[in-house]
Design goal:
The complex is a heterotrimer of chains A (297), B (346) and C (130). Chain A is α/β, with parallel strands linked by helices and 297 residues long. In chain A, 32% of the residues lie in helices and 29% in strands. The radius of gyration of chain A is 21 Å and the shape is elongated. The C terminus of chain A is likely disordered. Chain B is mainly alpha-helical. Chain B folds into two domains: 254 residues, no CATH class; 85 residues, no CATH class. Chain B is built from twelve helices and five strands. The radius of gyration of chain B is 26 Å and the shape is elongated. Chain C is mainly alpha-helical and 130 residues long. Chain C folds into two domains: 64 residues, Orthogonal Bundle (Arc Repressor Mutant, subunit A); 45 residues, no CATH class. Helices cover 58% and strands 8% of the residues of chain C. In chain C, helix 1 crosses helix 3. Chain C is elongated, with a radius of gyration of 19 Å. The chains are: A alpha/beta (297), B mainly alpha (346), C mainly alpha (130). At the A-B interface, helix 2, strand 5, helix 3 and helix 5 of A face helix 1 and helix 4 of B.
Chain lengths: 297, 346, 130
């Protein structure tokens, strides 16, 4: 099956700074993929390259088997919601729908109209007067009603209050259930991704730290607690992601496919949030910086 | 894409139509009056050249009140229109979307960037040209009595206060404003795309356009068609300017009598063909001698007058040349915009 | 129609929670044979979870023989977990209460009661198999 997003050695450089480096990903179709990382990690850069707003400096990227924004056909297959849900402040809700109808051959007017009604949006209201949540919903309607195969959302709920956030995700999942569209969405809040994502990509300082199906990741990562020990003494099959020590105790987060036989360890499950945080601190540790990640519940 | 361009342009279009409507009303109100004045002045009835010229000169010089105001204002507005179009229609065209981030919405609909920019440029550019063209046409219709009168007046004594080939009026008549509008618009869009911020782009557009409008009539236009020269004996009865200085040098200039012509240079030359700078004659230097004595002394120097000019008959040739140049540059800028948006804007 | 909820702190995978809630409802007679389970769209529209989670839960229920999908219509309950034994719940509950009262009078605390019960339960289950 063609991956919805295939990146090989993808990189983007601004001056001397690499916003994204050595990015290799293969996101399978039929998933809701979450791209998580702190601000400035390169999430927006990656997503903008996926929709053709940016040109890569190195490497290649293919979306749905084609070049991003290569032509009207490719553009019709990918729906995009940019950060802060840009809409035309002077145009009304109905005008935005007309915009979608005129500019997209695959536009489903019935679907768009039903959504607007279900959302209780006033068609005559100018987009500049809508609340943040309503604007996000309008932008999502525009992206969804053109019936794409893939939806790409850049921090869609970052600036929304908790209620609007929940409503947006409910809506998004409904659209996914109805239209069988694949989704790639980015966020710096792990909690939202936890509920909706079944594929996870952790991105920090422009590099992919880990990527995979959430089920696999949770099954292969374990939390080990036991007497104080040097992580280097562990068998090679167990990769230590993060380690913390007190004078008597060691807590490790390891990744391994094999079962853990050492009886000295207490093995417990890892939640997605701890997993993500562990990978972020691993990346930060190698640079001596703490990442600014929000872990909200 | 046409719908979206129109929808975003709607407010500006209505504004332009409102301005045109106001001007149309002003013309409609004063036009018949002006025509009446023209008929009443007796110019249409006259046959003898001499009489017509006097009547015509009087008619032109006596335009006053509302008619004069409307005339000056409409010419002023036609001068300003291309610049305003460049600043208010051109500069914000793309920049507004860049600043608001809405280009991220527009460029992910199922239209390519190329089509997006091409349609915007074409539609608004053509609207600009049409608006300005219509305006110029309206002025031409309204001011036709004046034009006819100045034509007649000029034929007699060459002293016309309304010379449409001269820089002052040239840019506000005929088809040249259409070229200016296209150029200013394309310039505005280009500035916006390169600078990416609306207000600086507007300022740059205005500055560059103003600079071009100064450079063009003074340094470029005179050479578009090789000027004509005529050398005549200096008519001492027509001396318009005479000056002497402490070193005994003298310069003399006589008035030019070429009806409707755009005079580029008016030199007094000596028998050898060089510019005459002196020495001054005794009669002209002395404080006590009369002007007639000074003139007589000049006559004995056998000076000649070399006039470089563009004849009135070349008015339309110049109009088409200038319009063609500005349209060509506008097209080049438009092409650059399309290329830039496609390739470079990231 | 059953309404699902999600406990994001329980540490139990969402799809398992859904399955548990269906089983629970079946046991208590809240869901009966022929009842329709909520559509995937409705569930994700309320809970904001991945549709694949719901699909997985429903597939598992199908595998266990508790539900069946009818193409284009929805997923329906096909079995029940209550049987004649539902009637026996009442008296059994009373007996259990009496035993608990006796255990407390004997001086056992909560953890001891739980340990005693589980140990007896397990060894009895082992004897049943053997």
């Amino acid at each position: 099956m063609t991956a919805v997003l295939e990146a090989r050695g993808l990189g983007k450089r601004y001056g001397r700074l690499w916003a994204l480096a050595d990015c290799t990903l293969s996101i399978p179709p039929g998933h809701v993929a979450g791209l998580v990382g702190p601000n400035g990690a390169g999430k927006t850069t990656l997503l903008h390259m996926a929709v053709g707003l940016l040109q890569p400096t190195s490497g290649t990227i293919e979306v749905l088997g084609g070049q991003p924004a290569a032509g009207p056909a490719q553009l019709a297959r990918v729906g995009f919601l940019a950060q802060d849900a840009p809409t035309y402040a002077g145009l009304s809700v109905a005008d935005h729908l007309r915009l979608g109808a005129h500019l997209n051959p695959g536009w489903d007017a019935r679907l768009a109209h039903d959504r607007i009604e279900a959302l209780d949006l006033n068609p005559g209201q100018r987009a500049g007067k809508l609340s943040g949540g309503e604007r996000a919903q309008l932008a999502l309607t525009l992206a969804v009603a053109k019936r794409p195969e893939l939806l790409i959302l850049d921090e869609p709920v970052a600036s929304l209050d908790p209620l609007a956030r929940r409503e947006f995700l409910q809506d998004l999942m409904e659209a996914v259930a109805e239209q069988q569209v694949s989704v790639v969405l980015s966020s710096h809040l792990v909690a939202d991704l936890e509920r909706v994502c079944d594929y996870l990509i952790v991105l920090t300082t422009g590099r992919v730290q880990v990527a995979g199906e959430v089920e696999d990741l949770l099954a292969t990562h374990h939390l080990l607690t036991g007497p104080r020990r040097d992580p280097a003494t562990l068998p090679a099959s167990q990769h230590v992601i993060s380690a913390s020590h007190t004078d008597r105790q060691t807590t490790l987060l390891v990744r391994t496919d094999a079962p853990i036989h050492d009886p000295a360890w207490t093995v417990s499950q890892v939640g997605m949030e701890d997993l993500v945080l562990a990978y972020m601190s691993q990346a930060a540790g190698s640079r001596g910086r703490k990442p600014a990640l929000e872990a909200q519940r | 894409m046409i719908w979206l361009t129109w929808r975003q342009f709607r407010a500006q279009a209505w504004a332009a139509l409102a301005v045109l409507a106001v001007i149309a009303i002003a013309f409609g109100v004063t036009g018949p009056h002006l025509a009446y004045l023209y008929d009443a002045s007796g110019i249409p009835a006259c046959h003898a050249h001499g009489d017509c010229a006097t009547l015509a000169t009087n008619f032109v010089n006596e335009l006053k009140g509302l008619d004069a105001v409307v005339w000056f204002v409409s010419i002023g507005v036609l001068y300003l229109a291309p610049g305003l179009i460049g600043v208010f229609w051109g500069a914000p065209l793309v920049t507004r979307e860049l600043e608001a981030g809405t280009f991220r919405l527009a460029w992910n609909q199922s239209v390519t960037r190329t089509r997006w920019i091409a349609v915007k440029l074409a539609l608004v550019g053509l609207a600009a040209m049409a608006a300005v063209g219509l305006f110029s046409l309206m002025i031409a219709w309204w001011a036709s009595p004046i034009d006819r009168a100045t034509g007649l007046a000029a034929s007699r004594n060459g002293a016309s206060s309304v010379n449409r080939l001269a820089p002052l009026l040239f840019g506000a008549s005929g088809v040249a404003p259409i070229g200016y509008a296209a150029f200013a618009f394309a310039l505005g869009v280009t500035a916006g795309i390169v600078i990416r911020r609306t207000v600086p782009a507007m300022a740059i557009t205005l500055a560059v356009f103003a600079a071009v409008q100064i450079v063009m009539p003074n340094w470029v236009r005179p050479h578009l068609i090789t000027p004509a020269h005529v050398t005549t004996a200096l008519n001492t009865a027509n001396i318009s300017q005479l000056s002497t200085d402490n070193n005994g040098q003298m310069t003399v200039t006589a008035a030019v009598h070429i009806p409707g012509a755009w005079v580029l240079s008016n030199q007094t030359i000596n028998a050898a063909g060089q510019a005459f700078t002196g020495p001054a004659t005794k009669a002209c230097l002395s404080q006590t001698a009369s002007i007639r004595a000074c003139n007589a002394s000049l006559g004995r120097l056998h000076l000649r007058q070399l006039v470089t000019y563009q004849p009135a008959s070349r008015y339309w040739a110049f109009q088409w040349h200038e319009t063609a140049i500005f349209l060509a540059v506008a097209l080049l800028l438009a092409g650059f915009c399309v290329w830039w948006i496609r390739r470079r804007l990231s | 129609m059953i309404e699902f909820y999600l406990d994001s702190r329980s540490g139990v995978a969402p799809y398992l929670q859904l399955i548990q809630q269906v089983r629970q409802a079946l046991r208590l007679g809240l869901l009966r044979e022929g009842d329709q389970l909520p559509t995937v769209k409705d569930v994700v529209g309320r809970l904001a979870i991945n549709p694949n989670t719901v699909l997985k839960a429903y597939r598992e229920l199908e595998y266990e023989g508790l539900a069946a999908a009818r193409a284009g219509i929805g997923t329906f309950v096909t079995a029940t977990l209550t049987d004649a034994s539902l009637a026996a719940h009442g008296p059994l509950r009373r007996d259990l209460r009496r035993w608990l009262a006796r255990a407390r009078r004997a001086g056992l605390d909560d953890d001891s009661i739980e340990a005693l019960f589980l140990d007896t339960f397990r060894s009895a289950a082992g004897e049943d198999i053997a």
